[in-house]
């Protein structure tokens, strides 16, 4: 059983009775890396999350945008602030802004007025496989319009949460080199979904290249596999290799709940993280489970869930 304070570096809330999230509300389901996601097409609010984290010493959480109605990105930020004022969660948030949109500057300025906002996530266009990459594709990290919006993040003090397959990490490293003042937080361990020997070799090489960039970090999360329960046996090597590549000071553990409830219980996932790192010692684990998230997401000491 995990016996450390936890700041969950990546989690979500949604109220589908009040708010429109197309991917959770519309039919048919979109293609999703975990397969059928009917089980999470229901409200998930702080009461549900506190139930799922009851066995943890929860010290805070980082809410990450949920692909809310793209016509109203600031609406989600306003809703999250109202939720936090009522429920005490989340502690901080990562909002959305379409970086390649003509109004990106205006949206970023509006988002920056909200005190819990620490960064932005806008999933760049991604190729379905390494051999299908198209340099400069619209909406990609090498698209001039997308980069024009990205260039505005530093002025607002925002970090950038990057969710992209590992084969785009060369682009991400170049993005960091061109805009080194903006912290890039890689989501979900670089998405090592292909667990074949070749797939993992490509993932390790890409992660190593990206980790060489000076202002990047990674969230060890989202390690589920469709149809396969989350297990330490399946994920220990990836957890440890990620820590070896980035260094423990640049890694954060996160639940990705409720999305990862499709593959495992939250306690199972966090206990797995603890077991995978037990030999690293208490101070390293304390950083992985809370200290690094507190630092990267600028959560004041003493702020609790």
Layout of helices and strands:
Layout: E1 5-11, H1 22-25, H2 46-52, E2 57-64, H3 73-87, E3 92-95, H4 104-111, E4 117-121, H5 144-150, E5 159-162, H6 169-178, E6 184-186, H7 197-211, E7 216-220, H8 232-246, E8 251-253, H9 266-276, H10 282-296
Parallel strand pairs: 1-2, 2-3, 3-4, 4-5, 5-6, 6-7, 7-8
Helix pairs in contact: 6-7, 7-8, 8-9
What's this model, at a glance?
Helix content is 35%, strand content 13%.
Molecular structure report:
It holds the Pfam family Amidohydro_2. One of its GO terms (molecular function) is hydrolase activity. Belongs to the metallo-dependent hydrolases superfamily. It contains ten helices and eight strands. With 305 residues, the protein is an alpha/beta fold. The protein has one domain: Metal-dependent hydrolases (TIM Barrel, Alpha-Beta Barrel), CATH 3.20.20.140. An eight-stranded parallel sheet has the order 1-2-3-4-5-6-7-8.
Features of the shown structure:
single chain; alpha/beta; TIM Barrel; 10 helices; globular
């Amino acid at each position: 059983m995990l016996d450390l304070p936890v700041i969950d570096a990546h989690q979500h809330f949604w109220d589908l009775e009040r708010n429109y999230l197309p991917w959770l509300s519309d039919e048919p389901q979109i293609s999703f890396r975990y397969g059928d996601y009917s089980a999470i097409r229901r409200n998930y609010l702080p009461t549900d999350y506190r139930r799922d984290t009851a066995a943890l010493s929860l010290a805070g959480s980082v809410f990450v945008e949920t692909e809310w109605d793209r016509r109203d990105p600031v609406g989600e930020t306003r809703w999250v602030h109202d939720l936090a004022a009522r429920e005490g969660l989340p502690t901080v948030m990562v909002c959305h802004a379409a970086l390649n949109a003509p109004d990106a500057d205006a949206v970023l300025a509006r988002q920056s007025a909200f005190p819990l906002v620490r960064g932005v996530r806008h999933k760049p266009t991604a190729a379905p496989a390494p051999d299908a990459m198209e340099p400069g594709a619209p909406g990609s990290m090498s698209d001039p319009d997308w980069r024009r919006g990205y260039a505005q993040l530093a002025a607002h003090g925002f970090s950038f949460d990057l969710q992209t397959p590992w084969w785009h990490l060369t682009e991400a490293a170049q993005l960091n080199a061109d805009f080194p003042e903006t912290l890039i937080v890689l989501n979900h361990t670089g998405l090592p979904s292909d667990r074949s020997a070749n797939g993992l070799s490509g993932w390790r090489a890409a992660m190593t290249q990206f980790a060489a960039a000076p202002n990047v970090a990674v969230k060890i999360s989202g390690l589920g596999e469709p149809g396969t329960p989350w297990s330490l046996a399946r994920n220990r090597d990836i957890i440890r290799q990620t820590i070896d590549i980035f260094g423990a000071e640049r890694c954060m553990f996160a639940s990705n709940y409720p999305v990862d409830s499709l593959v495992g219980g939250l306690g199972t996932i966090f206990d797995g993280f603890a077991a995978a790192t037990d030999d690293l010692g208490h101070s390293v684990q304390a950083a992985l489970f809370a200290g690094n998230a507190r630092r990267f997401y600028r959560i004041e000491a003493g702020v609790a869930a």
